[in-house]
Amino acid sequence: ARAKGTGSQVDRSAGAVDWLTRLIGLGLVLVLAAIQMWDPPLIEAARLRLFDQLQRSAPRPIPDQSPVAIVDIDDASLAEIGQWPWPRSVFADLIDRLGEAGAVAIVFDILFAEADRLSPPAYAQFLEPIDARVAALLRTLPSNEEAMAAAIRRYPVVLGEAGIGAAQAKLDGGFAPPARFAWLGQGVEEALPAFPYGVTALPALAGNARGLGLVTVVPELDGVVRRAPTAARVGSRVLPGLAIEALRVATDTPTIIVAGDAAGIGSLNLAPRFAINRYVQLRASITFNYEFTS
Predict the structure, then answer these.
(1) How confident is the model at residue 78, as a pLDDT?
(2) Cα(283)–Cα(8) distance, rounded to whole angstroms?
């Protein structure tokens, strides 16, 4: 009888320990889930440092041949062409040269939001007090915007637009983007990053561009830019990120198909050959949080 009672006590003790272990495990899961949802700065900073370390220890290999060429505005360019900003006629010539070289998409991460002060009609006002006759001749010449717009019409050009928090009375915004979106899932559009206002290129330029893409990026808490929006709401419109729009134009895809839910984007499809998935918080990290599949 004594042995039987001892065994019963052992069974009860084992059961109590088992329930205690389960409660501790459940508590840890709830705490970790709360931390993940809260995402305090300390945790985010640690995650960012880990990401940077992964970039250094296992960077994406650079291919021997890349389909992307960067035309940089560097010191050599400034020494040859002159100080910034350059006349729009320079960009018109650049577009023509790139188009003739066979570029399937010519992408500018520059905002052409204001009129070119070096355009002949605009420059005429500065010469008026000096030589009215020369000023009158300059007003008869086409503007640099017209030259650039003509080049944009000839080739597939993507221009940038910025999302901002305050309206700018002197700058254009709200131009209808060429990209169309098809939404698969409820609440995806509402979950996108939002900017109340936008600043885009002049209508003469934006109206002739094959694409408009968002150039705005939001730094992390340490001030480093590691991610770029894949798409965002700018005012009442939805704009793709500049890289997404460049790929859309290059593949001649009219509609971007976005699947997901109120928690975010699950996948973004540009064409049967291009699917972009594994997005985190609607933003693509530079290396580790996106992939292209074919």
Answers:
(1) 94
(2) 58
